[in-house]
Amino acid sequence: MALEHAILVSLLEQPGSGYELARRFERSIGRFWTATHQQIYRVLKRMEADGWVTAEEIGQGGRPDKRCYSVAASGRVVLASWLRDPVQPEAVRHELAVKIRGAAFTDADGRATLIAEVERYRVTHEATLQRYLTGERRDFPDTATLDAGRRLQHTVLRGGIAYERMVLDWLDDVLDTLRGLDR
Q1: Could you tell me where the DSSP H helices lie in 28-183?
Q2: Residue 60 pLDDT more than 70?
């Protein structure tokens, strides 16, 4: 997937400025596709030059005008074509998992260092899970009334929540195993 596709999906959900897109990436799309503000602005400029998006200048009374982007017909064609392409399963490269396997070849001090690293890693995943749960409560308080687009957004978020819970369960298992090696 290219950043262009994530931007097209986001703009079809709701047109917006580069700044607004960057905020959406921070709040929701960033759960599965990250991009910096600079990357978003650079790609928007290229997409506009390619005719995939159009921009409308909007005055802001005393502040610089903003450019509000929306998807052009050719952008819809590009997205429709991409949606038909098969998706290959992603290869997982997980440095921490290799370190955990390597713990069999170190001493108690090395395992203690690894335990601290797994605990740190766990804290970041716990924080991510909490952000997702907070976002779910904020953005999807009444799932019975969601339209198709919002139901699909919620499904992706639920996948992120399930993933984070799975990682936390696995990390707890790793910690129990590592701590049990030196008993």
Answers
A1: 37-49, 73-84, 95-102, 108-139, 148-181
A2: yes
